Structures are given as C-alpha cells and as structure tokens.
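[Discussion] Sanity-checking designs against the backbone

I'm trying to build intuition for which residues belong where. Below is a structure token string of 78 positions. I'd appreciate it if someone posts a full sequence so I can compare it with mine line by line.
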C-alpha cells in the first residue's frame, strides 16, 4: 500500500498527479492513495512529512518514506 502526499498549490505535486492520472493504473495491484495536505494536515505529523510531494509505502519489511523527486518517479514507474 502506498500513500502519496501532495499539495494542489505545488507545481511538482501537480505534475506528478497529472502523470499518475494519465499513466499509472496499478503497480502489481498495490493501492496508491493520494492525500491533499490541506484536507489532511494531521497525516503529516503521523508520517513526519516535511516536503511535498512525499511517498510513503507500507510493505512486508516495514515503512519506507521518499521525498526525492527522481526517486519518486522511479518508484511510481513514471
């Protein structure tokens, strides 16, 4: 499962969201939830998010957190 934190006022977030909507269907059936920072600010505290866009993934190993843009594109396959 993945959670992508974005801001609708951030240009990088807008670009990633547009690419996700146009190209990404599902990565091996794993759900990706997109969260707007304005509507869910408490989520930032839970995952210690300080930059946007930010991808948090839950897997068998544990929790991984990524905010570096080239790595985000790689993780999402964009």
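Best answer:
Here's mine. Compare freely.
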């Amino acid at each position: 499962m993945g959670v992508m934190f974005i801001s609708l006022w951030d240009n990088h977030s807008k670009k990633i969201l547009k690419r996700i909507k146009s190209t990404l269907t599902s990565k091996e059936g794993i759900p990706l939830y997109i969260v707007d920072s304005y509507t869910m600010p408490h989520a930032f505290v839970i995952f210690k998010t300080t930059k946007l866009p930010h991808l948090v993934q839950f897997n068998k190993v544990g929790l991984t957190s990524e905010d570096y843009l080239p790595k985000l594109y790689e993780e999402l396959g964009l």
